[in-house]
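Subject: for your reference before the review

Hello V.,

The reviewers asked for a structural picture of the protein, and I figured it would be easier to keep everything in one thread rather than splitting it across files. Below is the amino acid sequence we used in the manuscript, unchanged from the supplementary table.
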Amino acid sequence: MNKNNLQRMVGMCVITFLFATTFSIPSEAAGRMILVGTKGVKSSMYGQWLTLVFTEAFRRLGYEFQYDGYPAARASAMSDAGKVDGEISRVFEYQRDHPNLIRVEEALYSTNFVAYTVKPGLVLNGWKSLKNTTFNVEYRRGVKLSKNKLSLVVPAEHLSDVTSAEQGLKKLITRRTDLYVDVEFTIIETMKRLNPDKFDVSTLYQAGIMQEVKAYAYLHKKHASLVPKVAGILKTMKQEGLFDHYFEITMDQP
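And here is what came back from the structure prediction:
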């Protein structure tokens, strides 16, 4: 075999090897983990904090990290279908309705589901305080806890959903609804972004806490082997003081 033929054969073998390895690498070994979440969380202080936490957590596992924000329902559909690697922040009960996702058993933070209103003197305490209400109540589409809890106590003709917290608060301010239920920090962050010349947020107030919840990350079942590793790393990061340190960093951001 002459030298040119030998070089051609070696070249073909190299190309074949590169092609095979490029297209046979499983997603878990691709070097990047993509978690999605709601736009409201991603744009909040908690979103900045979660970015720091999971950038470090996945770095320790050898992955780059990407955090994308979508409407809640779309984020659910993408993670359920395995188009992304999981969801960054959902409540404990979320796994019941999403069997393709596995909860990372290390809580990230605690928050409240709250009800906001413009109606003077309204006081609520828990989901049951809305039992058989005649108020028109709205929640953010794709937030399953709100949907499941409210549908048990609010008559169907008085319950509706919206695509975003911004839409929900605008409708509340313009008296098109009576109550809006969502995650507390999502409402607070959204109120900051509303144009005060068009929407007077001073008329809004918190009527009550519906439920205190803890937030967890979820990974798609294709990453089942990573779930306990991520939980272990998050626990270690807490012990190292990194959770608190990252909170301090995000609190200092403008």
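For the response letter, the relevant points are probably these. Confidence is low (pLDDT under 50) at residues 2-29. The radius of gyration is 23 Å.

Happy to draft the paragraph if you're swamped.

O.
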